[in-house]
Structure formats: C-alpha cells, structure tokens
Amino acid sequence: MKKTVLLMGVSALVLSGCVTREQADERIAKGCAAGVELFLAEGFKIKEIKGKTYSDSAEFGKGYRSVTLQAVESDGWLDVDKQYSCVFAEDFGLFNTGHRATIYQLKVNDQVYGNENGQIKGDFKDHLKLTETVEQAMNR
Is pLDDT larger for residue 93 or for residue 75? Predict the structure, then answer.
C-alpha cells in the first residue's frame, strides 16, 4: 500500500512538472525577441510578432532548436516587416521535467551574433549582454 501511494505521488510530481515542446518553443521565442531588440537600430523596437516558425536546426543538428520570427519593426513612425532567426542549444530534463536553453546564434538585419562557423561573432561584451537578456526574458 505504501509503495502504491509513493509511486502515485512521484508520478503526479513528474507529470505536473512536464514541459511540452510548445511551452519550450514559446519560451525560446520570448528569448529570441528580447535578443533581437538589443541589436536593432536606435529608437526601433519590435512592434508586433506576426508569426513564429520552429524547427530542429538543420545547420547545427540534434540538441539545437531554431526559431524564426516574422515581425514588424517600428520606430513609432516607420513600420517595416522583418524576419529574425535564433538558434538555441537546448536540453530537456528527465521525463521533460524541465527545459534548459541557451542562445547559440542570433541573426538580425544581416548581422550574426553568437556562434558562426565555430567562432564567436561580436565582442565579449555583446555576447554577455545577449546571453543575460535572453535568459531573463525566458525566465519571466
């Protein structure tokens, strides 16, 4: 009897803490949008996200997730349709009990930040600020 109750308790804990693929994707999309805004021209912000596309990264392989944002970039006067992309290194906990993602690459207006061809693009200060901003956005 005690084993059954313990098994039911553990099962409930595991199932209630599960992270779905959709939840993880929304989380990385929030992080991507925050990272993009760091590198927009002064005065510009993402006004609206019109669409999001998710896929496993064809370029980096297993354990990497890509998100592409179709967005409207605006300075309050001019609205421009743009597309931004991010790649995250990600990992799910045992039985999907948690999700961990780290920004790996960000593409904004033909500029690459993060990792490209095995090298870090941008300076250390930009990379550190990008990582911190994305982490904060994903954890809100």
Answer: 75
